[in-house]
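quick one, 277 residues, struct below
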Amino acid sequence: MNLRRLYILVMALSIFAVANATYLSILGPASATLHNGQSIYLGKVGPGESFYVEASATTTNASGYLINIGWAKLAAENLPSGWYSQPSLLYANPMKMKITVPSSAQNGTYNFTIAAIDVGNYSKLGAFFVTAYVNVTPNVFSMNVTPTSIQSGIDQPTNLYITINNTGISDDPFGISVSGLPAWNFSEQVVALHLTQSTYLYPVYVNESGTYNLNLTVASTTSPAIKLSQPIRLVAAASLQNDYSAVGQGVILSPVIFYPSYELMLFLSYVYNSISH
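---
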């Protein structure tokens, strides 16, 4: 290779490097440093859910000079039909825009354009666009419930532990409810952060003895298509054994005259549980 050709190659590589010096750092829900025209897969989202795209306003200009707030705003363009967005606040760092998927969205992979905007081309960054992909599906979380078989006394709350693993990119509010119990309509609302697993406590009780086949449901409050259920069997009966076990779970018995005996009853509950297990 002669010197002329080597010089041309070096100049071409230099021009390419300068042209790609400007970048956009996506911080969430997925993370990547992208150059103009590149793409990123963000993750799963349910129909009817909203999610946020967060990116740093810091970048470099064409000369490689670092600019702390080079990008003034983050916005979405070329959204699928029925989708809508809210751009980030002007000159915020990091930038955070909101995307909402309609509840009528069918399962599948969709894409839209993320635009990093240098308002008035003040920082001389020019136009900058990257493509984002998301997978729309109602299968955005899994759950585990313990215990699923319960022996309880009358009017003695038993705690259920519900673990929600949110595998989607939306910080979705979920409602926890139970059907199959007489005169019981208590529901609990929790927020399951995206890509996070958390455990929540949910108490149940009955005021009549009997065997009850319950159905515990965890459902998104934004989309009826996003829900899971777990059958639970509860046997309620009045007995001293159940009273002791209830004290072991922190249930307070009444009347007040029983209070001095709590420590003894708690000890007996531990003994009973040790023998039965």
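The chain has three domains: 3-136, 141-238, 239-277.
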